[in-house]
Amino acid sequence: MKRDSRLSGVLHILLHLAEQREPATSEALARAMGTHPVVIRRVMAGLRNQGYVCSAKGHGGGWRLACDLAAVTLRDIHVALGSPALLGIGHRTESPGCLVEQAVNAALDRAFEDAQALLLARLGDVTLAALSADCHARLVARGGACSLEASHAA
Questions:
Q1: 80 phi and psi, to 5 degrees?
Q2: 44 belongs to a structural domain
Q3: Alpha carbon of 94 to those of 58, 108, 110, 117: distances in Å?
Q4: Structural domain contains residue 61
Q5: pLDDT of 120-142, one tens digit each?
Q6: Within-domain flag for 106
Q7: Which of 17, 98, 125, 129 is deepest in the core (most CB within 10 A)?
Q8: Residue 4 pLDDT > 90, yes or no?
Q9: Which CATH number belongs to the domain containing residue 134 in this structure?
Q10: Using an 8 Å Cβ cutoff, are 65 and 14 in contact?
Q11: What InterPro entries does the record point to (predicted)?
């Protein structure tokens, strides 16, 4: 089963943007993320519509962070991405005729709902500022800098 890694990727991009003095182009972000610039533009356009990033066209243009890192949680970004499924497991059959499978599905539904509520609450507890602080602590420990190019050099 393929995992949805958009949240992880977008958080990665947002933290890099927080460190950039100049706008980052879709091309530079795509190189860093190992994807196509069109994918970056599509995802970033949704974040721009939510006010998390802004963009400028032309020479010297690109993407910039447009939000306060302390005011945005991982849950906010999850919602901005359309609230993709958090759990990759599900029922064998959604509408079973078998009473045993109905009982199994009912028990799993309760467990899935509880797990999702817990995960969403935890995502709501973590801000982009907390992630940035963790990144900075790791950089200090390593003695490096947090530039987009240096962090993702081939």
A1: -60, -25
A2: yes
A3: 50, 12, 14, 21
A4: yes
A5: 999 999 999 999 999 888 888 88
A6: yes
A7: 17
A8: no
A9: 1.10.10.10
A10: yes
A11: Tscrpt_reg_Rrf2, WH-like_DNA-bd_sf, WH_DNA-bd_sf
At 60-97, the pLDDT tens digits run 889 999 999 999 999 999 999 999 888 888 888 888 88
Q: Which amino acid is at 63?
A: W
How many domains are there within the chain? 1
Task: Give the structural domain span for 122.
Answer: 6-151
Cβ pair 28, 149 in contact under 8 A: yes
User: Quick one: CA torsion of 99, 104, 110, 111, rounded to 10 degrees?
Assistant: 180
pLDDT band at 154 (very low <50, low <70, confident <90, very high): very low
Helix (H, G, I), strand (E, B) or coil at 70: helix
Residues 98-127, mean pLDDT to the nearest whole number: 94
Contact (CB, 8 A) for 16 and 24 = yes
Residue 92's SS3 state is coil
What's the DSSP call for residue 127? B
Tokens of 96: 């079973």
DSSP one-letter code for 86: S
Tokens of 19: 């460190």
CA pair distance 82, 96, nearest whole angstrom: 29
